[in-house]
From TrEMBL:
Official protein name in the record: Translational regulator CsrA
Family to which this protein belongs: Belongs to the CsrA/RsmA family.
Keywords from the UniProt entry: Bacterial flagellum biogenesis, Cytoplasm, Repressor, RNA-binding, Translation regulation
Any GO molecular function: mRNA 5'-UTR binding
Length: 72
């Protein structure tokens, strides 16, 4: 993991087309702006984990339905 120190207004570039801008630092909270092509998904870490858990639960339920005996 790369760890960088930045001040308000400074930026970080990822590749050629993703820019991270430090917009505000207040106490322990840092606000950032992200400029990226619309084709790049940008999602908060906790939401990504929630989606992953939901997807896993859905797969398990679907597998249980497929394995359940069918009533004719």
């Amino acid at each position: 993991m790369l760890v960088l120190s930045r001040k308000v207004g400074e930026t970080i570039w990822i590749g050629e087309d993703i820019e991270i801008v430090i917009s505000e630092v207040k106490g322990e909270q840092v606000k950032i702006g992200i400029r990226a092509p619309r084709s790049i998904d940008v999602i908060r870490g906790e939401l990504r984990q929630d989606v992953s858990v939901s997807n896993t639960e859905a797969v398990i339920k679907n597998l249980a339905l497929l394995k359940a005996p069918k009533n004719k």
